[in-house]
From TrEMBL:
InterPro entries: Aminotrans_3, Aminotrans_3_PPA_site, Class-III_PLP-dep_AT, PyrdxlP-dep_Trfase, PyrdxlP-dep_Trfase_major, PyrdxlP-dep_Trfase_small
Recorded GO MF terms: identical protein binding; pyridoxal phosphate binding; transaminase activity
Keyword annotations of the record: Aminotransferase, Pyridoxal phosphate, Transferase
Name recorded for this polypeptide: Ornithine/acetylornithine aminotransferase
Superkingdom as given in the UniProt entry: Bacteria
Organism this protein belongs to: Bernardetia litoralis (strain ATCC 23117 / DSM 6794 / NBRC 15988 / NCIMB 1366 / Fx l1 / Sio-4) (Flexibacter litoralis)
Pfam families: Aminotran_3 (PF00202)
CDD domains reported for this sequence: OAT_like
Family: Belongs to the class-III pyridoxal-phosphate-dependent aminotransferase family.
Transit peptide listed as a keyword: no
Cofactor section: pyridoxal 5'-phosphate
Amino acid sequence: MLSSRQLFLNHVAQTSPFPLALEVHNAKGIYMFGSKNKKWIDIISGIGVSNVGHRHPKVIKAIQKQLKKYMHLMVYGEFIQTPQVLLATALSKTFPATLGESFLDKKNENYNADIAQNATYFVNSGSEAVEGAIKLAKRFTKRTQLIGCHNAYHGSTHAALSLGTSKEWKEPFLPLLPDIDHINFNEEAHLSKITEKTAAVIIETVQGEGGVRIPEKSYLQTLRKKCTETGTILICDEIQCGFGRTGKLWAFEHFDIIPDIVVAAKAMGGGMPIGAFMASQQMMACLSDNPILGHISTFGGHPVSCVASLATLKVIQEEKLLDSIEEKHELFKKLLSPKTTKAIKEFRGIGLMLAVEFESFEFLQKVIAHCLDLGLLSDWFLYCDNSMRIAPPLIITKKEIKKACKIILEAIQLTEE
Ligand code: PMP
């Protein structure tokens, strides 16, 4: 009989030439459990997904309740699905104002300056959310040019690949989308590329796969200004940095800017698949005010995912999870700084979106392997392979942070021996 590992490798198509193929039987909170009493601290939250921990009881309860009512009904529009309504209403209020201020028709009879009038288009993943956002931007502005940032990751579809810059990732799939340009992240001089021809600029508010790169506040504010001046839509990709990861619900809140479109996924579903692009009701209306449909997604806004997402949002808000993030950040910083060991070259991050840099990919690979043996699951970044990804569930306690850092430091020591 073939082992489950062999069956997995034979029949589940792989995305990587060296899959870890770890067997996990159960996951709860910050832990994953395997056979023979194996237990790992999940220090990466399934890559920025389990922000409220694995199988949060309130998320499970919401899912179970919904399962007794209905699952899929119909591509949305045909039926009012209460989970979608409740989630979209709650999401609208998470923004400080109506998105896309400069595009609003304030004379419109439905316009109300006192409430956030935002709408959410639900999809299934981050890549699909990016896809929908750029379609909305093109359709709304009637322009074609799109601008992305160097070292960005927006997903794996053709459009998302086009907006990123990794040459080797793009090469086998050329030609990709036309009329795309790129600017250096966090470099003001490059903003002159944004003109009246640009439909949208898409930027990760904090770059994730680039290895946790935090822009200057002044950079994002100048970008915001340039977009407003040229009538360009500013899309913030909050797929990895949103939903509390940086210590604020949305990372853009750190920089005092308001984007025109926000894309989210990953942690949004509390472990269930969901993605979304969000904009003002007025901007979003252009997807439906024309006989040619704007975007279609059979499963977008799946009611089970929506209740899980709403429960996740409530856990973050009602349990005041974000209040302790700064303190937890400081503890990681203290325990994993270059001052702790010379093997650590740099500690970067914001909130609990962290990167610990080592001299090389080879060194980090050994540290990660030792961590796994010692009971901690970690990772590197797609475009920054000498840095360890640290993005634990936000519910991690200070005692657990100390335990996790102790494992990482021990793994470093074993690597150095
Ligand atoms: N944007 C960012 C910033 C991401 O980190 C990711 C996923 N790593 C995506 C988009 C794509 O999301 P998905 O894998 O759900 O398509």
